[in-house]
Amino acid sequence: MKKEVLVFIFNGYADWESAYICSELNEAETDYIVKTLSLDKEPKISMGGFRIIPDYDVSDYPKNFSMLLLIGGYAWMKQKNNAILPVVEYAVKHHIPVAAICNAANFMAENGYLDNIRHSGNMLEYMKSQAPHYKGDINFLEKQAVCDSDIITANGTASLEFAREIMLYLKLKPVEKIDEWYKFNKLGFYKK
């Protein structure tokens, strides 16, 4: 039986931010499968126009999931996704990794999850403006993606680095293969 990675989706989620990692997790030879989670079971439409019917909602998700992915989008800025907080709290309490990219990292900051760990995000000043209760600025790193204490954070331009950190954390492939995958996707066929 494959281990489930839950990807939180909502109207207007930034679909490209999870594209690299979800396609890698869903490969036949991995131990993982991607499932979607939302606030309810109504269809959600991504920024790119993909219409998705969530597999689970916040009241019926499986408690034995392997990772929670929080994808960016404008809804985080308007506090429209706050009902996901109990799922995040459950994951953190049970040492289930949480990966947050772009504005989802601001959500993690606002709720205190980044105060005492190394982390990244879009920009420190932006994070502080979006997360008034954030107290972790001393731990903010100007890096594309950071993994610390079962939490992975990344900025909105770092979907590849986000995927790489998740792949490394889950030991999805040998490190050399992950590095090859990253370099190929970052540099492409042609170096110029």
TrEMBL record:
It comes from Clostridium carboxidivorans P7. This is ThiJ/PfpI domain protein. Residues 3-167 form the DJ-1/PfpI domain. Transmembrane segments: none annotated. CDD domains: GATase1_PfpI_3. It comes from the Bacteria. One of its GO terms (cellular component) is cytoplasm. It holds the Pfam family DJ-1_PfpI. PANTHER family: DJ-1_PFPI DOMAIN-CONTAINING PROTEIN, PROTEIN/NUCLEIC ACID DEGLYCASE DJ-1-RELATED.
